[in-house]
Amino acid sequence: MFCYKCGTQLVGGSEFCHNCGARAQRAVGQEEPKPQQSRPVVSGASSGVPSSSSAAVNFQHEDTWLPPATLREPVAQNQGPSTASVWSIICSVLAVLFTPLLFGAIAIYLGYRAKKSGDRAGDMLMICAVIATIVGLALGAIVWTQLVQ
């Protein structure tokens, strides 16, 4: 018996197709479809001939085909900001308000850790930490000169 949706041969007695997940039961009186032939499809090239060695060849059915769920790559989930990102922002604010050299250095390090952990905002966090350190030093110098006079 073959799957009516994708044409994959079904294991005897299975209720669902192991390839596409379609229900194996069909209406009475329908004939079994023949399995579809696979053909190579070259992705990354405009013609049927690969132009470079990096072109990948996928074997697909005539219609749209997805590999079984066990072979699919996991979909990237947006997990929000990392802990290092949040603490880098907090330390940048503290660098402007209190001790710029200490909190600025910590914020730069945390931005680096966020970048290494895969957070795309890591570069921007490091730049903001440097700017916050400079602004904190400038504000500290202004306040110091006002207090001394």
What's the gyration radius in Å? Answer: 30 Å
Structural class: mainly alpha
Mean pLDDT, all residues: 75
**Overall number of strands:** 2
Q: Which H/E pattern describes the elements?
A: EEHHH
Shape: rod-shaped
Which oligomeric form is depicted?
Answer: single chain
Helix content: 25-40%
Number of domains: 2
The count of helical stretches stands at: 3
Distance between the termini: 94 Å
Q: What percentage of the residues does DSSP assign to strands (E)? A: 5-15%
Q: Can you summarize the main beta sheet?
A: 2 strands, antiparallel
> How are strands sequenced across the largest beta sheet?
1-2
Q: Uncertain spans, ≥5 residues at pLDDT below 50?
A: 44-48, 50-63
Task: Kindly describe this structure.
This protein is mainly α and 149 residues long. It folds into 2 domains: 1-42, no CATH class; 83-148, no CATH class. Helices cover 40% and strands 7% of the residues. It is built from 3 helices and 2 strands. The protein has helices at residues 83-97, 100-116, 122-148; strands at residues 39-43, 56-60. The protein has a two-stranded antiparallel sheet with strand order 1-2. Helix 2 (100-116) packs antiparallel against helix 3. The longest helix has 27 residues, at 122-148. The chain is rod-shaped and about 95 Å long. Residues 44-48 and 50-63 have low confidence and may be disordered.
Characteristic key phrases:
single chain, 149 residues, mainly alpha, two-stranded antiparallel sheet, 3 helices, 2 strands, 7% strand
